[in-house]
Amino acid sequence: MRTETPKTIFLKDYKPTPYNIDNVRLTFRLHDTETLVRAEMKLKPNKASKAKKALLELDGEKIKLLSVAINGELLAPTEYVVSEHKLTIKTVPQKAFTLAIESQCDPKANTELSGLYMSNGVFCTQCEAEGFRRITYFYDRPDVLAKYHVRIEAPKAMPVLLSNGNPAGNGSISGTDRHFAEWDDPHPKPSYLFALVAGDLGSVHSDIITSEGRHVHLGIYVEKGKDNRCAWAMESLKASMRWDEKVFKRAYDLDVFNIVAVSDFNMGAMENKGLNIFNDKYILALPQTATDTDFELIEAIIAHEYFHNWTGNRITCRDWFQLCLKEGLTVFRDQEFTSDMRSRDVKRIDDVQDVRARQFPEDFGPLQHPPRPNAYIEINNFYTSTVYEKGAEVCRMIQTLIGAAAFAKGMQLYFKRHDGDAATVEDFVKCFEDASKKKLKQFFRWYEQAGTPQVAVSGKYDAKKKTYMLNLTQSVKRLKGQPAKLPLHMPLGLGLIGPDGRELHSGMIELTKAKQSFTFKNILAKPVLSLNRGFSAPIVLKHRATERDLLLQLAYDSDSFNRWEAGQELAKKLILERYHGKHGNQWPQKVAEFAEALRHPLTDTSLDEAYRAKLLDVPPYEELMAAIGKEIDPEKLYSAHEEFTAKLGEGLHDTLHEVYTSTESHAAYKPDAASSGKRALHYAALSLATRAQATWVEEALRQESQHATNMTAEYSALRISTRLRGALPEELSKRFFDAHNSDPLLIDKWFAAQALAPSESAADRVRTLMSHKDFTVKTPNRVYALLRNFIGGNFIGFHAPDGAGYKLAADVIIAIDAINPQVASRLATGFRTWRMFDAGNRKKAEAELQRILATKPLSPDVFEIISRTLKA
Length: 872
Ligand code: PHE
Ligand code: ZN
Fold this sequence. Notes:
Structural class: alpha+beta
Bound molecules: phenylalanine, zinc ion
Number of helices: 27
Oligomer: single chain
Largest sheet: 8 strands, mixed
């Protein structure tokens, strides 16, 4: 906890360590409160370091040092200094030597869930980014790669003892009720990839033979009694392994691959070498316990962590500023995997929606940073949508710019050139320059410059010359004190659509200048422009398309993304007209016309059902807020959004009913893309009809809930019902809780549904739920279910003009910071848009932010987020 202002770390200060650690032997004597750790390391001076006869300074935190020995000789206490964050040894041999350190830690007291901790009686670890230093003294940074051998000693009541690499023996410890297991990992790795698990766990097993002929044993370990929920995870793992062999030519490189699911975990999952550790909500799934969204997420996250084996583990990061090197690339890879497993068109829309809802607000506001930041206080604050999702968009743009073949070649070059390295983003991009012979120097600015570019568009058709001229101007908003922003190199997919809907031209242009014109010849009729097709660049287009043009795109655009986008643009326009009070009497008529235009694609059975469901999405608040920009009146925006949705539902009423009944299925639940797409459409129709308070929905929802054979049906009914007046919402909520209150993941869903139900007084409801017997601030999943959903997903509840939402959030952030700063800090990012609101809201938010900042002690995590949020 902080007493003075936390220190900022800069990219430009990177220096290699003066010593290397090549080998580590770790012995754990596990104990709830006094775990003994012995680390025997082989060190030698680092040739890459310029430091001469440097001190040996190792990271260490919240551990008790018991002894230090060099080359077998115990050091006297005068020969080293232990501080809160470091162990410093004054003189060490200037040639290869061994260092043995004994220390002790307290897993039970570890509520931060970083380092070695206990979850539900199971010992587990989380070392990324800087958790290993809470286990032993070490160079806890990603550029120190060592081979690990691990011995775990634990009570026999904990039969499962796991670590990284391959098994290397096990047995009883004679004269005790304890046993041991040893693990050996032949691949050098950074400390953040270390993992250990010990406990009494259930498991499922399978195996696979890799493309290189290696026989790999696969294991998934979960809480006892839940092993019947692992089949989907196992299937997804095998699919991921096969896909990486086929698409990226990457095969697995150990004899075992284990996954452990734990119920207390700050993040989604972790790619530790050969021993992935997961938040159990991304492993456990049965049709009766997990929704379609859960199934898809499980498949994607298993793939993501597995893909890290090459992009992250075999090739790791030189320092934490390079985080997007592994995360952006691995997200790109998991997106491609999902696109191949499911519908590519729908996946692209999902990903763009995610970028706009989470990355754009980050990029517009005070928490803005480039995919590769150049300064941080707490690295845990940089596991952001910008690093992950914008990082993935940047990889995708490289692929678009140089073409799929050169991109594939560049990837193989990257694997060949950098296997075993702690690499930089420069190393990565160089591979694509070399593979394609295309200069990516200007392109590299995407990694270094924060902010979402805006591209202003105007087009001019010359009927005589049959030419179409396109004028583009790019700019990035500058925040206070920032240097001038430079033009970026961006690929823009483009189509020109004729008045009859036929394509007159299609291709890709490269925008590199601040202002640039493009002329297209032989364009036989005045075209409608379809730009940034496939969302080829993560930008905001400023284009005054007419309603007629958008309707034409909605009907005919051959690019499935822009076809969907046209509908979104129209919807946004209509909501904003209402919000700004510019709608006049024509507005209901205009919404009805929009509904009419949607009817056709909505019932077009040549389009897949998941895509048709997407057409029913109403633009989310984040996008409307971005369009309004400032002085947002939350009540007005809420009611404009509500009115639009209700009117749209009314306009489509008959179609919704027809779609709803025609997508009913009595077949056994299957999680595949086609079946889940059908359910997506089914519930999208029911949801929109509910927003219009259609007469049939109440009975439909009751039936859905009573006769549900799967969680998608049950949870959809529960969520949708919160939009109805009357007693039904309470009835469904009670039924859900009574049926599922012994299952933590389903209790989370029950809390989530209530956190998300929009109401100006939602803060009161959430506060009351915090005293529910099943609520606890100690389990991140529970906190996220109730509070992250409230803060990030209940627009009118969180931004209620009376300030009750802000006050609740601040109370919770302060309380949780004392237990788990990473979780508190994630909640704190919910304030990032506070300056966009009107003066009344701003004042209330600012007061709460100041109150958090004045709290002592405050973690560096929350300090960094709140101070940045207040500053810009
Ligand atoms: N590296 C993890 C991933 O796959 C995320 C993570 C970061 C997990 C930090 C735990 C701690 O994205
Ligand atoms: Zn990752």
